[in-house]
């Protein structure tokens, strides 16, 4: 018997910049990604989201495919500059209508919308004022959230504020590979704090508005294994867990930072600086649920050397460098690991372990697996997209979720990344994740992959048929 109950949601996920296109359509303002991706050398082969897969104009076609597949829920993000072209102030009613029509279309097809308010596409107008380093951006985010609650809260029950802070802050302010292309840990930590303030303010507004739903936060779930049993590697793995997990989960699930890491950050850089009321705001606005994005574990070793910060964005195996920080830790290749073309280890046990670690640290918090999937170059054989590796990947990770649920974890839904092949930020369109293939040489025509029909059967059996 499957451990998945009747109310468990089988869904799929995307993000606005990666699918919508229409980057300047109907009054939309520019986002930081609209600007960044047009700068030479920033993305793989100069790809950008100007058109993406044109979901903005083809959402009804896409929702029809979701309904055919049997999706019970669809997780998507809203484009902040599509609603507020300047980040605040004047509302773009055409943008409101787009999302309202999308929500209605989903509900007409018995698909539960799950909205993410922020999936990295900050309005460029706010970045010009300092972005997340500017505390006023947190206030603007709350204004944006209130608009979304007011216009969509009568129909949407599942909300999350931010997606993967460790990525958009880490790459935006430490590695410099995402906008705003800064490399400064102190600035990163202060910007991250303003994200937590924005989140807490949005949760407070959600509850004040008495929205009939729940609100959460979406984080990367990345388990860490020491390379060896040495004390140095174990300590390095614990530190990686503290930075990648506790620093990002504690403020939204406990309402405070890990005391030891907070002390270290302040000793080194005198950040994060709190404004009056921050401590209380965080403490009083804990999430209703947590979204977990799991793709891989990392094997961790002690590190006394400066390491590169460049990841594999080409899809050529072993083309990435070791990622780490001098005198702290580095991520290394596991000698027994199985890896994707982008050097991400396939390790489903890490999903079970990670879910149970969250349960152990934060109690019986409801969880959704808000992303999980395989980025690959899918083979086309006699006109069919034969993505057997994706089916195998999803199967073993669904098994891993079931194992965690059998041990008491309250997991309420599964959203593979992604519903449709989309723009993969720095990796272009060659890194495919979707159940639906997009033919960029043939008018962005949609085509169902082998995995589309596999997931269709799995949903129909409520997880029984894998």
UniProtKB/TrEMBL annotation:
Q: What is its EC number?
A: 3.2.1.21
Report the InterPro entries cross-referenced here: GH (IPR017853), GH_1_N_CS (IPR033132), Glyco_hydro_1 (IPR001360), Glyco_hydro_1_AS (IPR018120), Glyco_hydro_1_beta-glucosidase (IPR017736)
Single GO cellular component annotation? cytosol
Q: Which reaction does it catalyse?
A: Hydrolysis of terminal, non-reducing beta-D-glucosyl residues with release of beta-D-glucose
Q: Which domain of life does the UniProt lineage start with? A: Bacteria
Coiled-coil zones: none
Q: Where is the active site?
A: 164 (proton donor), 371 (nucleophile)
Biological process GO annotation list? cellulose catabolic process
Q: Which UniProt keywords apply?
A: Carbohydrate metabolism, Cellulose degradation, Glycosidase, Hydrolase, Polysaccharide degradation
Q: Name one Pfam family in it.
A: Glyco_hydro_1
* Single GO term (MF): beta-glucosidase activity
Protein's UniProt keywords contain Hydrolase: yes
Residues bound to substrate are 18, 119, 163, 295, 417
Q: Which family does it belong to?
A: Belongs to the glycosyl hydrolase 1 family.
PANTHER family in UniProt: GLYCOSYL HYDROLASE (PTHR10353), LP05116P (PTHR10353:SF36)
From the Swiss-Prot or TrEMBL record, give the protein name.
Answer: Beta-glucosidase
Q: Give the originating organism.
A: Dryocola boscaweniae
């Amino acid at each position: 018997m499957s451990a998945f109950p009747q109310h468990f949601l089988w869904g799929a996920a995307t993000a606005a910049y990666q699918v919508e296109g229409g980057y300047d359509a109907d009054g939309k303002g520019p986002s930081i990604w609209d600007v960044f991706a047009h700068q030479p050398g920033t993305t793989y082969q100069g790809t950008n989201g100007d058109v993406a897969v044109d979901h903005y104009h083809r959402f009804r076609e896409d929702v029809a495919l979701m309904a055919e597949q049997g999706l019970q829920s669809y997780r998507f993000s809203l484009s902040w500059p599509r609603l507020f072209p300047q980040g605040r102030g004047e509302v773009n009613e055409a943008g409101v209508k787009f999302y309202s029509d999308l929500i209605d279309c989903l509900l007409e097809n018995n698909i539960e919308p799950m909205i993410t308010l922020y999936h990295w596409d900050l309005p460029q107008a706010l970045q010009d004022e300092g972005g997340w380093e500017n505390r006023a951006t947190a206030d603007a985010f709350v204004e944006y959230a209130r608009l979304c609650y007011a216009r969509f809260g009568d129909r949407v029950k599942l909300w999350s504020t931010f997606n993967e802070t460790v990525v958009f802050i880490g790459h935006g302010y430490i590695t410099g590979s995402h906008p705003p292309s800064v490399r400064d840990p102190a600035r990163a930590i202060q910007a991250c704090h303003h994200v937590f303030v924005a989140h807490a303010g949005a949760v407070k507004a959600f509850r004040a508005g008495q929205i009939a739903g729940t609100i959460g936060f979406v984080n990367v779930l990345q388990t860490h294994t020491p390379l060896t049993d040495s004390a140095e590697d174990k300590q390095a793995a614990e530190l990686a867990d503290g930075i990648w997990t506790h620093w990002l989960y504690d403020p939204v699930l406990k309402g405070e930072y890990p005391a030891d890491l907070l002390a270290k950050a302040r000793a080194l850089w005198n950040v994060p600086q709190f404004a009056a009321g921050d401590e209380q705001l965080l403490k009083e606005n804990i999430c209703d649920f947590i979204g977990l994005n799991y793709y891989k574990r990392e094997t961790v070793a002690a590190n006394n050397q400066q390491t590169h910060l460049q990841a594999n964005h080409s899809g050529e195996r072993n083309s990435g460098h070791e990622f780490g920080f001098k005198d702290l830790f580095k991520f290394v290749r596991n000698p027994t690991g199985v890896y994707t073309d982008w050097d991400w280890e396939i390790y489903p046990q890490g999903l079970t372990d990670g879910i149970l670690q969250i349960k152990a640290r934060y109690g019986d918090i409801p969880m959704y697996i808000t992303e999980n999937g395989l980025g690959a170059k899918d083979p086309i054989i006699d006109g069919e997209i034969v993505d057997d590796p994706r089916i195998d990947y999803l199967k073993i990770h669904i098994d891993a979720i079931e194992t965690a649920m059998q041990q008491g974890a309250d997991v309420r839904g599964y959203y593979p990344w992604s519903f449709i092949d989309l723009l993969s930020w720095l990796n272009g369109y060659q890194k495919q994740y979707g159940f639906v293939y997009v033919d960029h040489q043939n008018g962005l025509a949609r085509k169902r992959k082998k995995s589309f029909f596999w997931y269709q059967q799995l949903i129909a059996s409520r997880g029984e048929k894998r």
